[in-house]
Amino acid sequence: MINIPKGTKDVLPKEAYRWQYIEKIARKTAADFNVKEIRTPVFEHTEVFARGVGDTTDIVNKEMYTFLDKGNRSVTLKPEGTSAVVRSFIENGLFNETLPSKLFYLTPCFRYERPQAGRLREFHQFGVEIFGGEGADTDAEVILLAKTFLERVGIRELSLNLNSIGCKICRAEYNDALRAYLKSREEELCPLCRERAEKNPLRVLDCKDENCKKVTAEAPRILDYLCEDCKAHFERVKSLLTACGVEYKIDPDIVRGLDYYTKTVFEFVSTAIGAQGTVCGGGRYDGLVESMGGPALCGVGFGLGLERLLLLMDNLGVKVPEEPHVKVYVAPMGERAYEQAFRLVYRLRAKGVAAETDHAGRSLKAQMKYADKIGAENVIVLGDSELESGEAEIKRMNDGEKRKVSLDRLEDEF
Fold it and tell me: Which are the contacts of 216, defined by CB distance < 8 A and separation ≥ 6?
């Protein structure tokens, strides 16, 4: 027997309807915020992610599924959604259309990392990207979209954590101060963070190593180094959220895991899925479009893992509406009746009624059991006597009520 690859998961029919439920809510929420869907390939040229995500990140250095194709070109399975969307936005000239450009996606992503609860090597993201919105209102809108979606799927007890990591100007000054501080305590850092401290010191703040956490707890804070523009932007984000009745707390340790973020960064956090309780994260990335060959255009977005969301829903006891049942089961008895049943089921389906019939040559008793098992709301029995009389009985399964209907009117009853 050939087994499924490590770090991947089959979505079986009994689970698929839960995915469809949250995907439907994601699409509806995006539509309510006037955000349109975009679909990008599962794989891209490796440069898309090296330039977009950043070559100092763990994703690029350790986690990407990268290989040479038959043309000896380096391609990579998509590890996150934003960089691919930016590539498409530039390549297809969407910046020439009306701005802001508001896009969302539901996409598979791939990262080679140790599988754990809610974190797989193939996972799925719901993401939103808005290009061309310079003001803090765009940051607030993206946060509100994420909050609305999470509330609609039934998750309300979440903490919104905010931070600002400044722009290139004020972050350069902060990086110098942080680098000097980390240098003074270099021996206390893990080997990876000793490397990060020189190349990208901000990444040290994101380390989960306990010793590194102790060191960074006393590190300089980016909020103390913000320029006047970044301060004003962050204050505006906070005031807009407050105006909408949204509670938040400032968390200076949020830096997000990708190099492209600037100014606002945020996370929605829950403790219901363990220590790493981030359910959704995102922020502003004003230099990403330009760095990938496009115009100097700002962007704001978020990404949300559907596997982690489903795990959180389970842990919180959030109930998903039951999968829709079959409306009508037609139980044939005999070959002549089967042909009539098969035609009736087809005609019902053609008009949008979920219908089913027997495909296994079951007895009537076995068919009734099967109809009950699949949750059929109504059952029609068709046999020689029904064909001769020109009438059949419709049985409503929840209360056993029966009514006789002429055969030529059966499909009109549903």
Answer: 204, 205, 207, 253
Tell me the pLDDT band of 54, cut-offs 50, 70 and 90: low
Q: Which CATH superfamily is domain 13-167+227-316 in?
A: Bira Bifunctional Protein; Domain 2 (3.30.930.10)
Q: Which residues contact 96 (CB under 8 A, 6 or more apart)?
A: none
Q: 75 pairs with which residues across the strands?
A: 45, 67
Q: Residue 93 region, left (φ>0) first, then alpha (ψ -120 to 50), else beta?
A: left
CA distances from 111 to 118, 155, 185 (A): 13, 26, 32
Q: How many CB atoms lie within 10 A of CB 397?
A: 16
Decide if domain 328-413 falls under CATH 3.40.50.800.
Answer: yes
DSSP codes of every residue in 148-174: HHHHHTT----EEEEEE---HHHHHHH
Q: 136 exposed, middle or buried (CB, 10 Å; 0-12, 13-18, 19+)?
A: buried
Residues 267-298 have pLDDT tens digits of 999 877 654 578 999 999 998 999 899 999 99
Q: Residue 299 in 3-state DSSP?
A: strand
The β-bridge partners of 102 are: 130
- Residue 281 CA to residue 127 CA, distance in Å, equals 10
pTM of the model: 0.89
Nearest in space to 182 (alpha carbons), one of 233, 218, 222: 218
DSSP 316-343: HTPPPPPPPPPSEEEEE-SHHHHHHHHH
In 185-305, alpha helices (H): 191-199, 210-216, 228-243, 288-291
Summary count for the chain: helices (H), strands (E): 14, 16
Give the tokens for residue 317.
């006891």
For the chain, domain boundaries: 13-167+227-316, 328-413
Q: Which residue has the tokens 């019939």?
A: 357
Taking the C-alpha atoms of residue 309 and residue 150, their distance in angstroms, rounded to an integer, is: 9
Strand ranges in 43-92 using DSSP code E only, listed in sequence order: 43-45, 66-68, 74-77
